[in-house]
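stage 2 :: seqdesign
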């Protein structure tokens, strides 16, 4: 019912706004303001729809059945068998014994394994399910039970006990997940008609392939690759050949491929700033599923980073503004949007944005005087986004923007006889926000509790004091014209910087902070302690110089066991889902700890683990899946989906209103490096009151669902979809009317692929659903009904003798209204 109410509210918001309002911005805004209560109702209902419907019971035992196929036969189950046995288990209220006994007595089992001894049978289950032989103790125990004829003990019950005994999050569990992912990928391809599955020879071949899948993600990729190659064998097809492009230039046709396209769309939505026309087709040229995604990820990692500082400087010079003025922060944001819209290294950019919400600095604080320094800080995140977390941690720590924002810059040791003490700001936030968090965590992200059930703090005031003393003696590097090391701690300051590389020097706005040893506290410091602590005992010895002490302190944090789950969970939240399961967090945390080559903190491996995890794209409607879209990302997705462009080729803050006014923060509550505090725009632990909190869930982005912002956003989407869109790709971008006056920066959406569908509501809605959701069947019945009613308000169509202009106006109105209603719908609010 919330969707229906939301549609009524949105429909009501249109009352009194006709096409003539395009020529009167004040009147249009007044009409929207008049519907304020309906606007807020609509957006609140959109936000509360974020969790989606309950999961379908049709899927509830599929995974259990698939595990039994793997354990008994060492191969994926066929779609018919999975569905049949899942229904049988439901009828038996979840009792798996029936299927296990039937599998053990089947002809296939007898033919393939009937000659094996009891010991070989048990060991075979271990090999097929876990990829290893049974340990001697376990093997002897199970064989003894099998031969004892005790009630309740059979090969079937042993298989169930082995499956149930695998600890969640363990290496065995990761291997099972990978084998399930391989099996699921194959079965989906069979269900979609892309592959066949019949005959003993093919079953045997699949068993051989499945046996190569280990806990290593590469083994999964290679296994899937072996079934999706160049089509040399009967059971292999070139998936892309079966999925030609549609007329809209995005997605694929409806002959079994939409499921492939939908999953690809969801993957790209998680790893980029939005899916453009043609992106899915390009991705599917690599294959399908994990194979295509992994190839894409590895190609992305090879792309050079697209950095912003030089582009900001170029734009400053083009506009002729001073480098330290407030306008430059707007230029910096413009360049950020330009990169988000056009850069090819989308994975790196999306990871950098996620990291910017962990390592937070803001031009709303002390860096406000130094916009170029803020741009360079963001470039630091971009440069390290797919590198190593330890390197990133140090680069961020020594960046002057962070030093200024969290007052490590100019931090000095205590002065005897005075009240001067080291500043504790960065010491505290480096632990609370950038590395270990407030409470001890298990590796699956759940909190460790003491005997009373209370959380265990990760640090106390003594540790804060020790880190604060460690982070002393750092200040601005020398001015560009001074000899390095000649500057005075008391006098050095940030210099004016216009981007010129003067006399071969570099501004200290973009150089790491320098260390001034005389201002460093070199006494012994006791840092954090934990098993395997570094440095030894968590102690920085007396007499250790400042740079070495800083490195030891960052190592002490980096190797703390809390870092992998604490950081992994937040990155999952930013890319995939607000409420990752403990198993999901642990699998990613395990990759953070060791990328398979012994390296800790490999951020590309972490991103890859997040995006290729079995839980990254569960069945649509799965419980706890997905997240509310960040407002800024929702706008970018819209722009990219409809090939948004401007007359001058730039993407700027003026797109949010009109020439000289409007910016992302005032409309969306969010803009890069402009958060109100070090705690970001929202907390990763935020849970709004009501149903979400009652279920123990979080929805961080809902902290931005403020009444004032929601009204602004509805107004923005109305302006963008109804007044700033091009019916034809060749149309002039800047119509000569008051609302568009002289604005080369105004962004227009391209609706030309949909105009000819204006008279066919179902075809139009299917095409828009493909563009914005990746599949033609993703709009709810309530939303479709609302769109149809809104389109019908413009009548059945012009009369047969109507001229072309009248026909075009009627078409434009219907398409624009349909797009608007989708953009402000609950469906589009959720990733």
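stage 2 :: out
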């Amino acid at each position: 019912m919330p969707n229906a109410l939301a549609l009524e509210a949105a429909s009501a918001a249109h009352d009194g706004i006709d096409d003539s309002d395009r020529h009167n911005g004040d009147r249009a805004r007044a009409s929207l303001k008049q519907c304020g209560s309906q606007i807020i109702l609509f957006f609140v209902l959109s936000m509360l729809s974020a969790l989606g419907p309950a999961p379908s019971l049709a899927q509830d035992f599929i995974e259990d059945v698939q595990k039994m196929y793997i354990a008994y036969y060492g191969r994926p189950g066929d779609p018919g068998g999975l569905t049949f046995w899942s229904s049988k288990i439901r009828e038996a209220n979840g009792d798996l014994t029936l299927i296990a006994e039937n599998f053990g007595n089947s002809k296939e089992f007898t033919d393939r394994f009937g000659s094996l001894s009891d010991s070989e049978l048990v060991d075979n289950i271990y090999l097929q399910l876990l990829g290893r032989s049974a340990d001697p103790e376990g093997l002897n125990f199970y064989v003894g039970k099998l031969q004892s004829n005790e009630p309740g003990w059979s090969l079937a019950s042993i298989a169930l006990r082995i499956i149930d005994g695998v600890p969640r999050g363990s290496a065995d569990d990761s291997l099972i997940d990978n084998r399930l992912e391989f099996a699921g990928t194959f079965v989906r391809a069979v269900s979609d008609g892309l592959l066949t599955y019949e005959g003993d020879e093919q079953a045997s071949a699949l068993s051989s392939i499945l046996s190569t899948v280990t806990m290593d993600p590469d083994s999964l990729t290679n296994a899937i690759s072996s079934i999706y190659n160049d089509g040399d064998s009967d059971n292999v097809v070139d998936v892309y050949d079966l999925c030609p492009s549609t007329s809209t230039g995005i997605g694929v046709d409806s002959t079994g491929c939409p499921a492939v396209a939908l999953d690809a769309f969801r993957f790209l939505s998680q790893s980029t700033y939005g899916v453009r026309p043609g992106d899915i087709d390009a991705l599917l040229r690599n294959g399908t599923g994990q194979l295509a995604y992994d190839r894409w990820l590895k190609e992305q990692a090879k792309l050079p980073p697209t950095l912003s500082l030089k582009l900001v400087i170029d734009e400053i010079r083009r506009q002729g503004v001073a480098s330290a003025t407030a306008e430059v922060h707007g230029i910096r944001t413009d360049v950020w949007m330009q990169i988000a819209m056009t850069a090819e290294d989308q994975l790196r950019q999306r990871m950098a944005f996620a990291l910017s919400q962990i390592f937070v600095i803001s031009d709303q604080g002390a860096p406000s005087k130094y916009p170029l320094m803020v741009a360079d800080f963001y470039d630091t995140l971009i440069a390290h986004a797919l590198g190593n977390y330890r390197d990133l941690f140090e680069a961020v720590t020594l960046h002057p923007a962070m030093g200024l924002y969290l007052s490590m810059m100019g931090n000095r040791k205590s002065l005897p006889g005075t009240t001067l003490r080291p500043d504790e700001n960065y010491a505290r936030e480096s632990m609370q926000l950038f590395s270990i968090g407030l409470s001890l965590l298990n590796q699956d992200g759940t909190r460790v509790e003491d005997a009373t059930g209370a959380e265990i703090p990760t640090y106390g005031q003594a540790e804060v004091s020790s880190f604060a003393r460690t982070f002393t003696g750092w200040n601005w590097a020398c001015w560009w014209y001074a000899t390095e090391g000649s500057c005075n701690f008391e006098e050095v300051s940030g210099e004016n910087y216009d981007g010129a590389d003067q006399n071969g020097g570099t501004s200290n706005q973009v150089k790491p902070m320098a260390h001034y040893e005389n201002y460093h506290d070199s006494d012994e410091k006791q840092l954090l302690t934990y098993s395997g602590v570094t440095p030894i005992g968590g102690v920085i010895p007396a007499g250790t110089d400042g740079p070495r002490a800083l490195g030891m302190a960052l190592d002490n944090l980096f190797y703390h066991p809390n870092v992998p789950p604490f950081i992994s969970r937040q990155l999952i939240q930013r890319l995939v889902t607000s409420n990752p399961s403990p198993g999901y967090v642990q699998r990613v945390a395990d990759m953070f700890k060791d990328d398979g080559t012994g390296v800790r903190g490999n951020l590309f491996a972490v991103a890859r683990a997040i995006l290729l995890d079995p839980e990254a794209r569960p069945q649509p409607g799965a419980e706890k899946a997905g997240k509310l879209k960040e407002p800024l990302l929702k706008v970018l997705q819209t722009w990219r989906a409809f090939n948004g462009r401007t007359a001058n080729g730039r993407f700027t803050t003026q797109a949010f209103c009109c020439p000289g006014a409007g910016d992302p923060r005032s409309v969306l509550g969010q803009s890069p490096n402009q958060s109100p505090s070090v705690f970001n725009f929202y907390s990763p632990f935020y849970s709004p009151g009501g149903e979400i909190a009652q279920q123990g869930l979080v929805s961080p982005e809902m902290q931005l669902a403020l009444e004032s912002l929601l009204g602004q956003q509805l107004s923005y989407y109305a302006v963008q979809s109804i007044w700033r869109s091009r019916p034809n790709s060749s149309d002039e971008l800047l119509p000569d009317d008051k609302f568009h006056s002289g604005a080369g920066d105004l962004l227009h959406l391209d609706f030309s692929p949909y105009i000819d569908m204006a008279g066919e509501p179902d075809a139009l809605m299917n095409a828009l659903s493909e563009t914005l959701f990746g599949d033609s069947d993703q709009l709810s019945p309530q939303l479709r009904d609302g769109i149809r009613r809104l389109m019908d308000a413009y009548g059945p169509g012009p009369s047969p003798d109507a001229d072309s202009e009248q026909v075009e106006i009627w078409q434009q109105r219907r398409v624009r209204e349909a797009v608007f209603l989708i953009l402000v719908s609950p469906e589009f609010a959720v990733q």
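stage 3 :: structure notes
- The radius of gyration is 30 Å.
- The longest helix spans residues 171-191.
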